[in-house]
Write a structure and sequence with these properties.
There is one protein chain. By secondary structure, the chain is α/β, with parallel strands linked by helices. The chain contains 11 helices and 13 strands. A 9-stranded mixed beta sheet has the order 5-4-1-8-9-10-11-12-13, sandwiched between helices. A 4-stranded mixed beta sheet has the order 3-2-6-7. The longest helix is centred in the C-terminal third of the chain and has 18 residues. The radius of gyration is 18 Å and the shape is globular. The N and C termini lie far apart (39 Å). The structure holds adenosine monophosphate. The site of adenosine monophosphate has 18 residues, from strand 2, helix 1 and helix 8.
Length: 304
């Protein structure tokens, strides 16, 4: 099986949506990413938690073959925590608090056997940590990265240095505008591509995702759902489905990338159906395949 290494957050989230409020929900960019990617490929997770975190919460990932040996547990440390509130329009959320805790002193140290993992995902986390992981790797075939407004605002210079070293970047529309300083998304994409990454994927929440490749664009809508409870993690799950599919295929040509966007969108559409990663816990590959087919049907037109 191909292998994909992810570094990102493993978190405790406090979430408010118009459909409810839950504290102490399992979260983190690496958690959601691993859940999405595990449907397609072997996943290795690098991250950090405090000893307040019950590792059994990640058993559902282990059961799907995710290797958690790269998660360091800091004795006496507190796990990264994030609190967010979604508006009536679920595309918009406010961060109520970000507590870095154990992330502040984390020094990732990759197991030797993981350094030649072919595919690397730098999930949303401090860009300095992203770079420290990248620097320990031996020539990955592909490096894809995600980030968030928090890092764009607080460590822009470090972030841009990391962006310069990746093949593809996944962002949401607001972040793409913020990073580039350009309100028009097409121009924003060009400016970001000029920073380094050849490929850019702009997620637009319930409005789908845009892929900007070398001179080519592709758009996939989000799957129209009647029941959306909690969008937390949808972006990371999208990235997991997208990259997991690419790693499984072992190629990154334009057609495979387009299909990967459909798989990512399908995975994300499950994530939002319940609070936290609950829907992903019990999800079966047969359900994923069915939704990808429904997706394909949603966007299919006869040849012109
Ligand atoms: P998403 O909804 O896909 O953007 O990701 C939500 C997840 O990102 C939550 O589970 C949070 O724990 C995590 N998260 C929130 N803020 C940050 C941050 N600044 N760095 C890394 N992860 C974060």
């Amino acid at each position: 099986m191909s292998q994909l290494l992810v570094v990102g957050t493993v978190a405790t989230d406090d979430i408010e949506t118009p459909y409810g409020k839950e504290a102490g929900v399992l979260g983190g960019s690496a958690t959601y990413f691993a859940a999405g990617a595990s449907f397609f490929t072997g996943v290795r997770v690098v991250g950090v938690v405090g000893d307040d975190f019950r590792l059994e919460r990640l058993d559902f990932l282990k059961d799907r073959g995710v290797d958690l040996a790269g998660i360091e547990v800091v004795p006496g440390g507190k796990t990264f925590r994030w609190a967010g509130r979604y508006h009536h329009d679920l595309n918009h959320r406010d961060t109520l608090g970000t507590w870095l805790n154990v992330l502040e002193t984390f020094q990732p140290d990759l197991p030797d056997a993981w350094k030649d993992t072919p595919y690397l995902f730098l999930a949303n986390i401090d860009p300095v940590l992203q770079r420290q992981v990248l620097e320990q790797m031996k020539r990955p075939k592909l490096v894809v990265m995600d980030t968030m407004n928090f890092w764009i605002e607080s460590v822009r210079k470090e972030l841009i240095e990391t962006i310069a070293r990746v093949d593809a970047l996944v962002l949401n529309d607001e972040e793409a505008r913020q990073l580039s300083g350009e309100p028009n998304l097409v121009r924003a994409a060009q400016k970001i591509q000029a920073l380094g990454p050849k490929t850019l994927i702009v997620k637009k929440g319930e409005h789908g995702a845009l892929l900007f490749g070398e001179g080519r664009q592709f758009f996939a809508p989000a799957y129209p759902l009647e029941d959306v409870r909690d969008p937390t993690g949808a972006g990371d799950t999208f990235a997991g489905g997208f990259y997991g599919y690419l790693a499984k295929q072992g190629k990154v040509d334009a057609e495979t990338m387009r299909r990967a966007v459909l798989y990512g969108s399908a995975l994300a559409s499950f994530c939002v159906e319940r609070f936290g990663p609950d829907r992903l816990r019990e999800l079966k590959m047969s359900e994923v395949d069915e939704r990808v087919k429904a997706f394909h049907d949603l966007v299919r037109v006869d040849p012109l």
